[in-house]
Protein 1
Amino acid sequence: MSDMRQLLLDTAVRLFEAASADEVFEAVEEGRFPENHWRAIEENGLVDMLLREEAGGAGVDFGDAMAVARTAGAFALPLPLVETMIGRWLLFDAGLEAPAGPLGMVTAAGRLEVAWPDNISALAVSAAADRVGWVAAGEVESERGTNSAGEPVGRLREPPPIPPGQSGDLSSEPSPSTVMAVARSAMIAGAMERILDLTIEHVQGRVQFGRPLARFQAVQQLVAVMASHAAVVGVAADTAIAAVETVLDRDAGDATFVAACAKARASEACYEVTRIAHQLHGAIGYTREHDLHRFTRRLWAWRDADGDEGYWQQRVGEMAIRSGGAGLWPLLVEARPAALER
């Protein structure tokens, strides 16, 4: 691990831990935005870390930024960090100055749903793979509701029109929907790793019929299934991150296939991981007092965000069909990032 990544993660853990206190989640479910914690994250530069130094950012590698996104998942962070970080990065790439404050992100993938519609300053919008723009949040009409995690959301019927002068062309791949799919996969991977830790801790400490649950073969099998899902999702996310880094380094290529595979696999695994976790925790896992629901409920929200498994499986199928019989194997081989071959 590089010194830069270690510094970023140390900072992220400190800030995310404070933002995941019981009172913060209670306030979130009452519709109150954790303003103080957002300000601390902003002041420590995490929202601008992908921007180049001349734009006021830290210019960190994409992989380092995704390590922070994975950590956000491991803390069930109830803030639009990833949307803001990627939105500002893409707007700068298109030659635009991003509005101050937290952002929502709308791409061509999946449902049009924006977290914290009354607290974000603007929406970064990309209805096409090579173009992005922004519109002030107050100018966007949406149906108010909550997601499965209890966070306020605004549901849009269609991407909002972008005012003149507030959109621009992106310089290269990857597309906004690809980048958001990779970031969301990283968050899901982080949350699954935390759910696995909580489950192992519970079955080792919970005693039934005179011995710990972890001693029962059926329980061991379920934990093994959960661990395999978490491991596969983690590897899929890492592979997609490496693919995006390769495209950015070479200023050429396409990471869409790998990102589609990663998000499809991550979203698909959400059902089994949450099912097994709650099955093994029993009734206590459903209580407000236990931390488990904070992660499992966000898995359900992130499963659909930026394209669910059905959306990305269809994209994988379309790309495979377009490649033809002779092109399918090269598509699979070329999807393997060079960073993972070393």
Protein 2
Amino acid sequence: MSVPYFLVVYHTIMLNFIDKILCQFESCFSRKASFRWFVTITIGFMLRSDKLGVTSVIRDLALSPDCYPSLIHFFRASSWSLDSIRLCWFSVIKNSFPLYEEGGFHVLVGDGVKQPKEGRRMPGVKKLFQESENSAKPEYIHGHMFGGLGILAGNTGTWACVPLSIRLHDGLQGAHTWKGAPISLASHVLKVIGDAYRAAQTFGDCLLLLDRYFLTVPALKALNALNRSGPVRLEIVTKAKKSCTAYEKPAPRKPGRGRPPKKGAAIHLKELFASHKERFLETRMELYGKQETIRYYSINLLWGQKLYQELRFVLVEMNGIQSILASTSLELEPLSIIRLYSYRFRIECMFRELKQQIGAFCYHFWSKHMPKLSYYQKAGEPNPLERVKDERSQRLILKAVRATEMHMVQSCIAMGILQGISICSVGKLSSDQLRYQRTPSRGRVSEAAIMAHLRKYFFLFIHQFTTFEIF
């Protein structure tokens, strides 16, 4: 097969990058065979052409069918630790990716994602309420609730939200008393905050972009406790509800007896769009890839019943739409808060690519020791996991949970490697050089284009280049 010279150079750079990243995980495995399976499966996720479970790795890498039992066993093996692999992935991203910074802070993005699952013996499957404007989606589903965390890398026009971790955040509370179960009773919101702070311990001071669902008093209390516990600082930029009520700072205490006031007059933030209309400033800035005219007004107020923490609120009007943004950092400029929140949608793009390209949510890990899930379980009935008393059954169910989370970790790594290749290709390669596209992207090469190209040339080039450690 004749290959253009510029592609030969590009493939060398690409394979060097893959080799460099994956070799750093070898210390996370106590057995060489486990590390080799880790490399095989991760590359399989990068090349897979269908989303039919881990059997796609067998097909797309042309492995022997006899490898299937060993491949399945890898996800439940005891020769690796999820925490050590996650921490290694954080370090790899810090050292190998051009991370975006805003005022000395790295930018994390967090959100939840719900994945429908019909398996009745899958641990963690439960009935979930699904908010969506798409009428084709049902109001309630049975599935897994994940908490996702990513970090922004690249520059304007080459943005990528690199996945850091995707963890099960719900449905396992009934197993929190089991021996060796790393399961917390904390809510989904608090778990996202905790995951972000653990990532910040690797990356340093960070800003965390969240949806309005996460602006709660327990979340701010947990954030303040974490910031007091160590030298790392984590700040939140999020969106407030339209019905949000804040408070002015209390007036100076008057002489006499009595407890000093904790708050001043209540302010309904939505009303400020009309009452403070003349104080709004108008400017043009780039949002979501377009130049937009916006009007904004910034004010620092106390928020949260019995907490009364000072937050910076930014009221924004754009194209007739009114929004209220909030930041725990009082040092961020209003325009920076507006621009940062516009980057939050990058995590939605990350989830889409993980679903459609990597097949991150196409797993089928279950256990016959798991009590069969009832689709008609009523509120107040005990969780199926609470009925499992045998220690061996508990251990095997936890292995199925661990297998699911390992599948997500490897999907994050596979996705991150593709994004790293894409970012490194900016200015050197365009999408239409890799495959035909009716409308080539103007920014970086898409993950789908790189996957399609790898499927076509991967085996040819690993046959020609034998100097790489992992091949």
